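Bench log, entry 3. Co-assembly request; chain sequences pasted below exactly as received.
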Amino acid sequence: MTDLAIVARGLRKHYGLVIAVDGIDLAVPRGTIYALLGPNGAGKTTTINMLTTLASPTAGEAAVCGYDVVRQADRVRACIGVTFQDIVLDSDLTGREVLDIHGRLYRQPAALRRQRIAELVDLVQLGEAIDRRVRTYSGGMKRRLELARGLMTDPQVLFLDEPTQGLDPQNRVGIWSYIRALNRERGLTLLLTTHYMDEAEALASRVGIVDRGRLVAEGAPGDLVATLGADVIRVRGSGNQAHFVSQVAALPFVARVETDVEAAMVLVYVDSGSRRLVEVVGLAGGNGFVVEDVTVARPSLGDVFLHHTGRALRD
Amino acid sequence: MDATLVIWNKHMTKFLRSTEELLGLMLQSVLWVVLFGVGMRGMIGEVDGSDYMSYILPGIIALSALGGAVGGGMVLLDERLRGILKEYLAAPIPRLSILLGSATSTATKALIQALIMLVVGVLMGARLAPNPFGWLASLLLLAVFAVGFSGMALAVAAVSRSIAGYHGMIFLFNLPLLFASNALYPLAVLPGWMLTIVLLNPTTYLIDAVRGLAFGAPFTLPLPLSVAVVALFAVACTWLALSVFRRSIRG
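Structure output for the full assembly:
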């Protein structure tokens, strides 16, 4: 037995000529929340599909709960819970029926199903609504019901594909708190995908940044950010950007300069933002680059993404 | 086996809740028998010694079984397109039970529709043979036939990309199965080329057997042959559904 809940080595998936996943390695220890962060189409869902046995890898191998996802697919299925990217619920059934049918598929005895449903309704706060048809639910309630369904069989590993997509901020924060509670109180291992940087930052103990089917960076969110420098000065402006960049890069205290072309933004990583701000901005004047906006901040996962892919991750 | 039962049960729950589907099913049955049957009866007195209502009822029942199967196939298609299938696929259940659950619920619906039709037909004056074993045998044969139709519908449902595409493809089967059979006219009146086509249609054998067994009409085809053809049809369609379904879920 290993203390890794999820392991993947050289995982690849091709659909004809399209390479959806281009060799991904993962090692997720038990009891962690791991976030795959990347834009839509990066290969996050395909990766989850392979780990949850819905798709078979073209090459490479993966194990979940210590079982091979291809050769021991049924064992993997028995130890995981999954929620899918789209809301996948029968609107003609009641919430209770959705959970009960799920438990029956996993051969849970009736008494256990009743007990689990009672616990989960409490956890995701569906209350009386559990006996209403799903068609009457709001988007947030549907997501909560799906979360409960994923937990119905008391899995060791829970996969959440874009768990808060399409939810309003209040519901997102609600889902986040359930996820954190599950991890903290039951030691549940969670692997989630998201294209929201704040979600990965708020939840994950480890983040894997995915772009074009590859894992381009991985680590604790704090460490990933720290490698970029202590502070980032974001300078938005118009004019001769290239000249400004080359001038700034020559300054001794500048660790790195990156450009976000789409947003006409120059990102200057420095040891201390407030102390260096004047010097950096000073270089703009008279050099054909007109500064429109300046902010000083701690770097974010979005900056990490830009650093590794050369493109900005937009919500 | 458990999972098959769970899925069957879930499909039947959904079926009994969807009032439109139930109402449509009833209405379709009644319209066929009452409007078509009664209308034609005014024109045609009797065929091969049966009154026309008794004569066409087996064909209409077979058609309604097809209607039920189409509805059942829709459930699989709907679950596929909306992603509900993924819940089953991620569960530790045999892949076969997903198809079997859909096939049994589909056949059940087809049989329910056939039964409604039978009752309405008898109320409208179709005369059953006095032998209850004949009725039972007919129902059994109808069930086997329904499994065959369900297989066909599920095979189409497993590959269709949209609901419209599904209905388009089903429509291709639907009318020929009725018109290129002995449902509305006896084999004896058909020209040779049409007789060939009609004899290739498994519906013909079902109808001939049901006519003889349940309505006391003379068999125009040997009963063992009819039973064999219907059984073979069911096996072939189930196999087709299975192989198509297997291919469709391979991720």
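Chain B touches chain A through 22 residues (CB under 8 Å). Chain B has one domain: 2-249.
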